[in-house]
């Protein structure tokens, strides 16, 4: 057991002793160390059990034991709550068990596990350990969503979100700064998972910041995800210097990752915020309208300053155009882009080859998580998930909150866009799970709608 693993255990056990809220905050904090394993891969048969995965699992188990099976399953199977999500997970697990056998040898895919030489080879569909790990990740995301919902109904949601996001932003900045200063020996201490690590890379002459994550796109996704939450969930934060500095630092490190996924998420977050502000002016209160005007003026000033810097400083202008050329114009010509496009096309073809039934979670690799969900769970599973998200996005109480910058469903949009741009697995990840849980829990905590399943037991 190396030093990084020992530190992870100390942090997780310390948080566990302080209670479920501290355990949740530690789980979010550890997202910055998603290449840190809590057990040597040699002990786990090559499967990497990462620190955030294990911490979130412990959090979900603690909530389950505290609430009891009756309440937990009541929330899981209620169609007013997580019922559609539950049906999605159940179908996905059944598909994972059956369809690699039913369609084995008939459908060809690029498997989740990349060979040691780094070259993906088209292979016939068969059951592998990736089916088990991806089904486990999806199930954990599902349990996380319900657990966060229970936690959010009985705590100060604003305080919970602030106490989770600000420490995560801080460690993203610290690890990103260490990478920027080329202190990789410090970051290597926290990268012991059995992953293909892609650190110390460049686009042209521009260094890509990785932090303590496996690759630049992971770091960029993390920083851009925090930016989206800070911007679109700003109603639960105090709009002060800490919020503004955190927002700008997330934006800066998203850019330093030189990740097209992060840039897509940032762009999507700005578009969603602009739409939100437009509706706030038209249908919101004076406070919402005032922030909308301030947001427009601040964005305009920032754009003017950026243009002036690019116009007066040839160095920054050259770097900006070089980055744009590499990410937009040259990217489609690279072998990596061709390979990732091939993954997605083959995975989508496997969906049609299965007759729309799916090929099981973890069977195939893609460069688009939404395509992977469709291929993995087929028409039935995808339909359950789409209906579940429609329920969240069209929730009347949630939409009212969203106009005030509180609704978590708006922060989901940039994160789902990021998954569509570069996600390689069907798992939608912890950001999505946490925001889903906050959506249901927040509605209850502000008194807009009650959803405690236990109420049905006594009435």
From TrEMBL:
Keywords: Membrane, Transmembrane, Transmembrane helix. The chain crosses the membrane at residues 46-65, 72-99, 135-153, 165-183, 216-234, 241-259, 265-284, 291-311, 370-394, 401-422, 428-448. It comes from the Bacteria. This is O-Antigen ligase. It comes from Methylobacterium phyllostachyos. The lineage of its organism: Bacteria, Pseudomonadati, Pseudomonadota, Alphaproteobacteria, Hyphomicrobiales.
